[in-house]
Amino acid sequence: MLKISWNRCRRIVQVSMILIFLLPLMGIYQVIGTLSSSRILGLTLTDPFAFLEILLASKAVTITFLMSALLIVGIYLFLGKVFCSWICPIGFLIEGVDALKKKWKWLTRIQLKKAVTHEQKQYYWALPFFLVLSLVVGIPIFQTLSPLGILYRTFLFGLGLEAFLILMIILLELAGYRRGWCRTLCPIGVFYALGSRWSPIKVRCDTDKCVQCFKCVKACNYTAESLKSTITSTSEFCVSSLCTRCGRCIDSCSSGALQFSLQPVADLLSEEGGEKISRRSVLQGAGMIALAGLAYKPSQALAAAAPRVFRPPGAVRDEEFLAKCLRCGKCIEVCPDKTLLSAHLDQGLNLGTPYFIPRRVPCSLCMECPDVCPSGALVPLGMREVKIGIAEIDKNRCYAYQDDVCRSCYNSCPLIDEAIKMEGFQYPVVDPEICTGCGICEYVCVMEYPAIQIKRMM
């Protein structure tokens, strides 16, 4: 009988997940977004932790947004903590660093800390810290700085200084802090670990077949202690909440004693397994919550500190936008004219959010971007309801006001004879009540330094 290699299957899934989210680079838009939030064949899915951050930062939620997160909750309650080993690109990257260290032994010489190969440890402080910080500052902090989002945005929208965070994770691994990011800093892994004990899918040990060679324990990256306890006791299932269902233990078992199996519901409800959160962890969490509280600053002040940029049509006011934006990039991907850009680290707290530069590429007001936003950062509007900014004419620079003939802005305006009118068939005049601020007039202005420019609404 052909034995399934779970590790090989896992590698295929990991690579496939990365490639699937890069399909828009090839003009295929059946899958858009990132792991924060995506639309797959018309179905919107949102990471539950991202949903919680947006909920706490914005203090608002829609049923559609909630349902997109509950779908993922249901999947991982059944499958367990598989995200970390089967889906997460950072996990894939870290495992790649591990493989290089085994191949190139000289890499181990730069370790600052002796790596503990079979350490079973998870720090829980990151979960309350990022949630409370998002609540008090009014911005989804982890979604802004998430290396998962940064990695995908780098591939999809270009390299920025924020990519150094990915490099830091690699250096942390090379320095000997094995799974340092995953165990210590990542709140997503903690979130899925909390619900993992309810998953019916567990590693089952057939004690009649087990020869206690402990090859599985040596192969395990996260739950070696629990696995060892399982095979040396009368326990049938490994019940550790940290198990990522990677299958490495099963692949290493030459006797076929280990297999994935469904744990009976009665046993699942009665078990007391899973890691107990220690008093130290509780104190760490409390300390981090207090630290997050000390970082309090009104969201209006934070929004004002961020550089002012032109948002997509339908964007809510600045402080609300920064609180609700998932930084998923779906709006950028569906933009037919490639108008929207993803903000890099030089844009401060705007990092990962969409914006555009009218002089480079204006907004055509196609209104496709609000349709893919699940969080309410972008609201569907009619074209005439859009208010990105207001066009202003510098009469000292405009050809028409210098008694020359130029109708570039007038002829290109999508609301011709409404947003821009011609006074006396000679002079363009902007109606601020009708102007949408799309930027087309600024884009087509024949002056090297445009005589008509979009000004942000205060």
Strand order of the largest sheet: 1-2-3
Assembly type = single chain
> Cα-atom Rg, whole angstroms?
27 Å
The fraction of residues in strands falls at: 5-15%
* Total beta strands: 12
In which range does the helix fraction lie?
40-55%
- Low-confidence segments, ≥5 residues, pLDDT <50? none
Q: What is the number of helical segments per DSSP (H or I, 4+ residues)?
A: 21
Global outline: elongated
Give the N-terminus to C-terminus distance in angstroms: 70 Å
Q: Describe the biggest sheet?
A: 3 strands, antiparallel
Mean pLDDT: 88
Structural class: mainly alpha
Task: Explain how this protein is built.
- The chain has helices spanning 6-21, 48-58, 63-79, 83-87, 89-103, 126-137, 141-145, 147-157, 164-174, 180-185, 187-196, 215-219, 224-231, 248-252, 265-270, 279-294, 299-305, 318-324, 330-334, 408-412, 440-444; strands at residues 31-33, 37-40, 43-46, 201-205, 237-238, 258-262, 341-342, 354-355, 389-393, 420-423, 427-430, 452-456.
- The protein has 458 residues and is mainly alpha-helical.
- The strands form 5 sheets. Strands 1-2-3 form a 3-stranded antiparallel sheet. It has a 3-stranded antiparallel sheet with strand order 5-4-6. It has a two-stranded antiparallel sheet with strand order 7-8.
- The model has no long low-confidence stretch (mean pLDDT 88).
